[in-house]
């Protein structure tokens, strides 16, 4: 058992009565509104499962000692806005946002209901919190630490692909996170002696044209920004890249598994499971302003040899030895 989980259970035993029992005695089951980014629970896939697993590990069961109100905006700005407002109007006890896109809408919808955000790249720059150590206001949560990893992904691509000179960056310009990611990647590309070109896709149907443009520009590899539309289209992106002979570097195991060439980033599912810990603390009386934002500390390097072979890349053995997982 993890140390944090053990301490949580020990604290509950010492108190004599678990929080769930207290809530039931008071005649009120806490309600958690969850603002997702995809269109359905099925589209969220492992993300949805991880969030629910996190609550179950703490003893929460939907309909028994907690109630979840799920909303699926399907990456549509108007739906994000209206669904966040709907959850706020229900006076949920905590508003949980999943993904970089959902967090700003949750924050704009309320300044009083506690918010727990997840997978946010830079919560300070996004004005979700005052600082990581002292969030202030009504929001806290877990960061993806994504912008700072853009440089590392380009560095790994250059090491993996002999003769790499032209790289692409796939972004969704509708997300507030795109600009810092572009700036970070441009600076890194210049230091690495790479020519970087940005390609845009706001929706799934814009992915094929983006990859057509990349192939026409002679791009050898594309770094995919961590973003909701690209998570939805992870299998499509893998197929498009393979058919055009372009290597992709994604940000998580879930976006890697459909057939990407490489992934580098934190364990996204573990971050999502941890969200329940923040919600639990708030339901027990903690204030978001006093809960420091949590950053990932461990990162995974995944390499797909099957994909590499299909697009004619021979990955250096030294890099393979450093990988956490290699798919033959």
From TrEMBL:
Domain of life per record: Bacteria
Keyword Signal part of the UniProt annotation: yes
Signal peptide bounds: 1-20
Keywords annotated in UniProt: Signal
CDD domains recorded: PBP1_ABC_unchar_transporter (cd06325)
Organism: Bradyrhizobium erythrophlei
Protein name listed in UniProt: Putative ABC transport system substrate-binding protein
InterPro entries in UniProt: ABC_transpt-TYRBP-like, Peripla_BP_I
């Amino acid at each position: 058992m993890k140390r944090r989980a053990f301490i949580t259970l020990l604290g509950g035993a010492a108190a004599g009565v678990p929080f769930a029992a207290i809530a039931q005695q008071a005649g009120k089951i806490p309600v958690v509104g969850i603002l997702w980014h995809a269109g359905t629970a099925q589209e969220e896939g492992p993300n949805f499962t991880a969030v629910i697993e996190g609550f179950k590990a703490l003893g929460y069961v939907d309909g028994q000692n907690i109630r979840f109100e799920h909303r699926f905006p399907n990456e549509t700005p108007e739906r994000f806005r209206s669904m966040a407002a709907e959850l706020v109007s229900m006076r949920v006890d905590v508003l949980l946002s999943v993904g970089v896109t959902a967090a700003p809408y949750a924050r704009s919808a309320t300044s009083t209901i506690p918010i727990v955000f997840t997978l946010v790249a830079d919560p300070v720059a996004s004005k979700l919190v005052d600082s990581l150590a002292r969030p202030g206001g009504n929001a806290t949560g877990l960061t993806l630490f994504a912008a700072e990893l853009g440089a590392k992904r380009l560095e790994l691509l250059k090491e993996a692909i002999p003769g790499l000179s032209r790289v692409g960056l796939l972004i969704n310009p509708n997300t507030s996170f795109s600009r810092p990611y572009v700036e970070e990647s441009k600076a890194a590309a210049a230091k690495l002696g790479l020519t970087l070109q940005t390609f845009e896709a706001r929706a799934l149907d814009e992915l094929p044209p983006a990859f057509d443009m990349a192939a026409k520009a002679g791009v050898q590899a594309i770094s995919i920004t961590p973003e909701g539309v690209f998570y939805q289209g992870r299998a499509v992106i893998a197929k498009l890249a393979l058919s055009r002979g372009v290597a992709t570097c994604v940000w998580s195991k879930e976006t890697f598994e459909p057939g990407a060439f490489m992934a580098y980033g934190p364990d996204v599912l573990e971050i999502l499971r941890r969200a329940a810990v923040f919600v639990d603390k708030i339901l027990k009386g903690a204030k978001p302003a006093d809960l420091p934002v949590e950053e990932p500390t461990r990162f995974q390097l995944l390499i797909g040899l099957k994909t590499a072979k299909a697009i004619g890349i021979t990955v250096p053995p030294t890099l393979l030895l450093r990988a956490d997982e290699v798919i033959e």
